[in-house]
Amino acid sequence: MKPEKLASDEIDKIDCKSIFINNNGISDIDKSVEIFENDHLIKVTNIAIALISVSESVKAQLIIRKVTVKLSNLIIDEKNQKSKEYIIERLISFYIKVIDFSLLQPNNAGILRGIWNSIESMYFDLIEKKETSSHYEKFREKFFERFINRLFTYNKEEEIIEGIETIKNIIQNQVLLNMPEDKKIIHLYSFINELEPNFKNFDDYSDIEIKDSEHWREIVIGFFDVFSIIINKSITSKNLDILNTCFKKLEELSFQIYLKEIGKYKSTFLHIKIATKISDYTYRAFEKNVFEEGIDAKNTLPLHLEMLIKSEEISSRTVLQKYCYLLIYLQKINKLDRWFIGGIKMNDFMVSEGELGRIARRCAYAYNENKNIQNCLDDCIETYVILKKYYESYKNDNFDLYIVIKERISAILEILLKCNVENEKLTERLKTQIEGFKNKEDY
Question: What's the domain of life for this entry (predicted)?
C-alpha cells in the first residue's frame, strides 16, 4: 500500500479516545514501546517524515493538512480543558517533528509553507463553524515562537515572510468575519466609556459575552504578540526586509479594517494599536541602528491616514500623533533626516515634503471642511514647532534641517492664505514662528 494511503488510514483511526496515549502503570519497557509504536499519530508522523526524506513534498503536505483538520476538530469538540491542551500538545509535537526534520533537508520550503497554510486554514475553519479562537489559545502560546525561532536560526527568510502573511490573515479574517458587535465585547467597555460617558456596562456578564471577549482578546492581544516576536527577532538579527514586511502587513491590515464596517470601536482600537506598534518598533529599530537612515524605514505612516482624517474617524488624530511623537523622539537621538521632514532636492528643485508635510498640506487645503482636519493640522504645526525649538536649544550641524522646518511652516501658511482661511490667530502664530527662525550666523 502506498505510504500516503497508509497515512490516510491511520488518520481516519484517530478519534477522541485513540488520540490519548495511556501507558500509566505499565512498568514493562517493551510494552510501553509497543503502545507508542502503535499510536496512530506517531505512525502518521513517521510516514510524513519518510516522504519528506525522499522529496515527496506534496504528499507530505497533504498529510500535514489532514492531520491538522482532524486534530483541530478534536480540539474544538473537547470540553475538558486538560484534555484539550493534551491534544494541542500532540498537534504541536507533530508539527515540530516535521519542522525539525525538514530544516535539515534540501528544498524544504514547500513543507514549511505547508505548515503555515495548514495553520491558516485551521483558524479560517473557525469562521464556518462559528467558533472562537480561544480553543487554540494554548496552541498560539506554545507553538508560534518555537516555529519562528527555528526559522530565524536557519535563516529561512521567505518562510518567515510567509508566516507574517499567515499571522496577518488570521487576524484579518477573524476581525472582519468572526467578531461580535462592539458593545458585546467586555474588553472594549472602558474604551467605549471614554467616548460615551452615558454608556452603561454591567458587572453580570453572560457566558456568551465572556466567550466573545476572550476571542477578541486572543486575536488583538495574542496574535499581535506573535507579530512582536517576529519584529523583535528581526531587530535582533538586523533584518530590514523582515522588519519592513511586518510593518507593511500591519498597514495592509489597517487599510482593510478601514474599508470594512467592523464597528466603530473595534476599528478605532485596532487603528491605534497598529499605529502604536509600528511607531514604537520603528523608534527601537533606529535606536539599535537597524535603521540608520529614514529611507530604511518603510510603512511608518498609513497611506489612508488622510481618508481617516477627512472622514472624521475617531482614531485619526491619535494615529497622526503617534507619528508626530516618533519624529520628536527620532530627533533626540539624531535620527531625523530629510526623508522624514522633507527638503530632498534634485537639480535644485524640492521633490519631497515628508509624510508629515504631505498630511499638513492636505489638511491646510481642506481646513474649512471639519473640526477634525483643523485639529490634525494643529498637531502637525505643533510638531514642527517642537522640532524647531529643539534645534534651537541643541545647536549642532543640523542647520539645513532647521531651515527645512521653516519651509514646512511657510508652506502651510501660504496654503491657508491662498484658501482664504479665516483664522487670524492661527495665521499670526505661523507668521511669528517663521519670523523667529535664526539666520545661519546666529544659529
Answer: Bacteria
Q: Model's pTM, two decimal places? A: 0.94
Q: What distance in Å separates the CA atoms of residue 156 and residue 158, rounded to the nearest whole number?
A: 6
The span from the CA of 108 to the CA of 52, in Å, is: 8
- Rounded to an integer, what distance in angstroms lies between the CA atom of residue 41 and that of residue 9? 11
Nearest alpha-carbon partner for 134 in 167, 104, 174, 91: 174
Taking phi over 0 as left and psi of -120 to 50 as alpha, with beta for the rest, 337 belongs to beta
> HSE on the CB side for 204, CA within 13 Å?
0
Q: Which residue has the cell 490634525?
A: 376
pLDDT, one tens digit for every residue, the chain (443 residues): 788 899 898 999 999 998 998 766 555 555 656 666 678 999 999 999 999 999 999 999 999 999 999 999 999 999 999 999 999 999 999 999 999 999 999 989 999 999 999 999 999 999 999 999 999 999 999 999 999 999 999 999 999 999 999 999 999 999 999 999 999 999 998 888 888 888 876 666 788 888 999 999 999 999 999 999 999 999 999 999 999 999 999 999 999 999 998 999 999 999 999 999 999 999 999 999 999 999 999 999 998 999 999 999 999 999 999 999 999 999 999 999 999 999 877 666 555 889 999 999 999 999 999 999 999 999 999 999 999 999 999 877 789 999 999 999 999 999 999 999 999 999 999 999 999 998 887 77
CB atoms within 10 A of CB 187: 14
Instruction: Provide, for the chain, the percentages of residues in helix, strand and coil under a 3-state DSSP scheme, each rounded to the nearest 5.
Output: 75, 0, 25
- Judged by DSSP in three states, 423 sits in coil
